[in-house]
Amino acid sequence: MKKARIDRHVRLSRHCVLGLVLLLAGHTTSYGQQAIATPNAAVKSSLTATTVAPIDSMTFDFNRDIAQQLIPFDEIYKLALAYSPSVKFEGAVSNSQMAAFQLSKLQVLQNVTGFANYSTGNQAILSTGTNASDQLGQISNGYRAGVNVAFSVHDLFGRPQQVRLARANYEATKERRRIAEIQLKRDLFNMYQDLLLAQKILQIRLRDDQASLAAYRIGEVELQKGKITPETHAFNSNRYAETKSTVEQAKTQFIKNIYALELFVGVPIYQLKRS
Predict the structure, then answer these.
(1) Model-level pTM?
(2) Alpha helices (H) in the chain, listed in sequence order
(3) Nearest-angstrom CA–CA distance, 161 and 173
(4) With contact defined as beta carbons under 8 Å apart, do 216 and 236 qualify?
(5) Would you call 107 exposed, middle or buried from its count of C-beta atoms within 10 A (0-12, 13-18, 19+)?
(6) Residue 56, by phi and psi: left (phi above 0), alpha (psi -120 to 50) or beta?
(7) Do residues 59 and 273 touch, judged by C-beta distance below 8 A?
(8) Which residues of 40-58 are buried (b: 16+ CB within 10 A; e: fewer)?
(9) In this structure, how many other beta carbons lie within 10 angstroms of the beta carbon of residue 212?
C-alpha cells in the first residue's frame, strides 16, 4: 500500500512538471512571436506616417511620380517665359532698338520744312518803272505757302549707314532675347530633372530607412534573449541612425528643389500642380 501510494505521488509530480514545462514553452513562444511582430507593426506605421503624410503641408503625394502631379513641362516653360525678369528685360531692350530703327528711317524728314502765311495792307515794295499801277507792288499782299528742302553731304552718304546700324542693333537685341529664352529653358529643364531625381532618391532612402528600422527592432529583441552581442546591436543602431540622417537630407533636398522651381518660374507652387 505504501509503495503504491508513493508511485501515485511520483506520477502526479511528473504530470505537474510536464504541465509546467508546456506552459513555459507556450509562454516563451507567444512572447517571441509578439516581440518579432511588434517591429513589423512599427515599420508599417512609420512607413505610413513618413511616406503618405504631405511634407511641409504641401499637397503632393510623394508615393506618386512628381511629374504626374505637376503640369506638363511646356506649360511650366510658358509660365516661366511670361514671368522671367531677364526675358522681360531683353524684350524691353529689343523694343527700344526697334523704335530707334524706325526713328533713324524717319529722321531724314527733319530736312524738309513747310511754311504758310498771309499778309495784307499797304506793303508795296520798291520797284522801278513809270507805270504807277505796276503789279509788282501787290505781290506782298495775300496768302503765301511753300516748302523748303535742304540736304547736306552727310545726309546723302552718312544716313544709309545710320539706318543700317540701327537695324543691326535691333537684330542683335532680338537674337539676345532668343538666347535668354534658350538659357531659361535649359535652366528650367535642369531644375525640373533635379526635382525628379530628388524624389527618386528620397523614395530609395525611405525604403532603406524602413529596412534599417526593422533590423534595429529585431536586434533589440534578440539582445534581450542573448542571441546577439551588444556590439552587434550597437552596429544596428548606428546603421539606423545613418539611414535616418540620409532620409532627412534627401527630404530637405527635395523640398528645396520644389521651392526653387516655384521661385524660378515666378508663380505659386499650387499653380504648377495638375488639377
Answers:
(1) 0.61
(2) 2-51, 66-69, 73-83, 85-106, 153-157, 159-225, 230-265
(3) 18
(4) yes
(5) middle
(6) left
(7) yes
(8) eeebeebeeeebeeeeeee
(9) 22
Any idea how long the chain is? Answer: 275
∠ Cα 119 120 125 (to 5°): 85
**Contact partners, residue 108, CB within 8 Å, separation at least 6:** 155, 159
The alpha carbon of 265 is separated from its chain's Cα centroid by a whole number of angstroms, namely 6
Q: What is the DSSP string of 12-80?
A: HHHHHHHHHHHHHHHHHHHHHHHHHHHHHHHHHHHHHHHHTSPGGG----TTS-HHHHBPPHHHHHHHH
Structural domain spans, the chain = 1-41, 54-272
Greatest mean pLDDT among 22-31, 49-58, 144-153, 189-198 lies in: 189-198
114's enclosing H/E stretch is strand 112-119
CA dihedral of 159, 162, 164, 165, whole degrees rounded to 10 = 170
- Cβ–Cβ < 8 Å for 221, 35: yes
Question: What is the band of 57 on the pLDDT scale with cuts at 50, 70, 90?
Answer: very low
* Nine cell digits for residue 174: 532680338
At residue 222's C-alpha, the angle toward residues 217 and 225, to 5°, is 135
In this structure, the strands spanning 142-149 and 112-119 are: antiparallel
Write down the CATH number for the domain with range 54-272.
Answer: 1.20.1600.10
Mention every residue, 6+ apart, whose C-beta is less than 8 A from residue 64.
Answer: none
